[in-house]
């Protein structure tokens, strides 16, 4: 980190700044340039608050060289993080190869989730999804079956041998997640820092979805919140961002996949369902995500999209899911795996 001092800075102001920095066990190299005086800060500067530094009277500007996150950074953790979900004969892992997460937007009934679970398990899903606590834009829309829905999801997962994932919107719901394998933190909660800290105290894997208007750096800082609170099992999910384009529900940022893989060791999953909001676009974008090196693809799959109580317009059929799995496998083989 480089601090640029004001030309007219007073010695006692600079001394106060130096004492503040040294108290944080950081070293300082002073550089007297022709026009500028600089302080180069050496050490782990990620926990230095730029705004506090800028508030010192003698500071003209501060430039970060290192990223503001540490635990999620590839710099300090070269190998990919691989999260093992089941230790059974067939291990389910995420962070190596390509894992499919499939299931309905919302769990609606025992029959619905069991029927979808059977088919997606047969067609190659590694994880069964289903929403029970639904963050809907309208208070009049279906809000999910809540703890009863979670029980149905856990039972369906057990009966087909798949680990499960569902969204938690509030920490008080945690007691109902005992039999759910991955906790999803949805796009709307990506910057709910109190929730992130609370979920960090839980050891269960967390899938963190990118906020609707969050930058890559903000997504990584949110993951840093979870890991620094004690939970290293974080999976990142690109699910499209808000842009000026309204023809699709969101704009899928495919470049986020290779970019995140450069910046972090955490697994990267893509959700083409919420990213596009249009059934016909889901398959091409899922295949593009596989080609871009995603570790996982999350898809909303339904037996009967027309009857779905939530997000029917973006649901694909179980048959379409089967085709996506087959084609993605061929793509991964062609590009030589997700490690690139
Ligand atoms: C979901 O996956 O069910 C969901 C609501 O997604 P998002 O948080 O990305 O909108
Ligand atoms: Mn949905």
What does this structure look like?
- The chain is built from ten helices and 14 strands.
- The protein has helices at 11-22, 50-54, 110-123, 146-160, 193-200, 216-228, 256-263, 272-276, 279-291, 318-335; strands at 2-5, 27-32, 37-42, 59-63, 83-86, 92-94, 99-103, 127-129, 164-167, 182-185, 206-209, 234-238, 268-270, 296-300.
- Helix 6 (216-228) links the parallel strand 11 (206-209) and strand 12 (234-238).
- Helix content is 33%, strand content 18%.
- Helix 3 (110-123) runs parallel beside helix 10 (318-335) and helix 5 crosses helix 6 (216-228).
- The strands form three sheets. The chain has an eight-stranded parallel β-barrel, surrounded by five helices. A four-stranded antiparallel sheet has the order 2-3-1-4.
- It starts with a strand and ends in a 5-residue tail after the last helix.
- It is of the alpha/beta class.
- Bound molecules: phosphoenolpyruvate (PEP) and manganese (II) ion.
- Residues 105, 131, 135, 167, 186-188, 209, 239, 271, 274 line the site of phosphoenolpyruvate.
Instruction: Kindly report the spatial arrangement of strands forming the biggest sheet.
Output: 7-8-9-10-11-12-13-14
Strand tally, please?
A: 14
Q: What summary fits the major beta sheet?
A: 8 strands, parallel, barrel
The SSE string, one letter per element, is EHEEHEEEEHEHEEHEHEHEHHEH
Radius of gyration: 23 Å
Shape: elongated
Portion in beta strands: 15-25%
Unreliable spans are none
Helix content: 25-40%
Let me know the average pLDDT: 96
Ligand types: phosphoenolpyruvate, manganese (II) ion
Distance between the termini: 30 Å
- Helical segment count: 10
Helix-strand category: alpha/beta
Quaternary status: single chain
């Amino acid at each position: 980190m480089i601090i640029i001092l004001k030309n007219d800075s007073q010695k006692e102001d600079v001394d106060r700044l130096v004492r503040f920095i040294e108290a944080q066990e950081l070293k300082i190299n002073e550089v007297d340039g022709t026009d500028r005086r600089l302080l180069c800060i050496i050490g782990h500067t990620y926990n230095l608050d730029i705004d506090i530094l800028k508030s010192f009277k003698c500071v003209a500007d501060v430039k970060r060289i290192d990223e503001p996150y540490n635990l999620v950074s590839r710099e300090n953790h070269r190998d990919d993080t691989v999260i093992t979900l089941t230790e059974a004969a067939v291990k389910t892992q995420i962070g190596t190869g390509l894992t499919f997460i499939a299931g309905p937007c919302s769990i609606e009934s025992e029959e619905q989730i069991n029927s979808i679970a059977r088919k997606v398990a047969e067609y190659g899903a590694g994880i069964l999804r289903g929403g029970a606590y639904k963050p809907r834009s309208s208070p009049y829309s279906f809000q999910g079956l809540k703890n009863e829905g979670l029980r149905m999801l856990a039972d369906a997962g057990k009966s087909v041998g798949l680990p499960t994932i569902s969204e938690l919107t509030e920490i008080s719901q945690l007691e109902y997640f005992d039999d759910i394998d991955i906790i999803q933190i949805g796009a709307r909660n990506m910057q709910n820092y109190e929730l992130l800290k609370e979920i960090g105290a839980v050891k269960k894997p967390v899938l963190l979805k990118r906020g609707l208007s969050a930058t890559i750096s903000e997504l990584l800082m949110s993951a840093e919140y979870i890991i620094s609170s004690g939970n290293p099992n974080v999976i990142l999910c690109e699910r499209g961002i808000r842009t000026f384009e309204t023809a699709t529900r969101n704009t899928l940022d495919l470049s986020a996949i290779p970019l995140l893989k450069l910046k972090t060791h955490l697994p990267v999953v893509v959700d083409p369902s919420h990213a596009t909001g249009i059934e016909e676009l889901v398959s091409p974008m899922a295949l593009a995500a596989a080609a871009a090196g995603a570790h996982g693809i999350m898809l909303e799959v339904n037996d009967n999209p027309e009857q779905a109580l939530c997000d029917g317009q973006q649901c694909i059929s179980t048959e379409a899911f089967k085709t996506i799995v087959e084609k993605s496998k061929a793509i991964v083989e062609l590009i030589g795996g997700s490690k690139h």
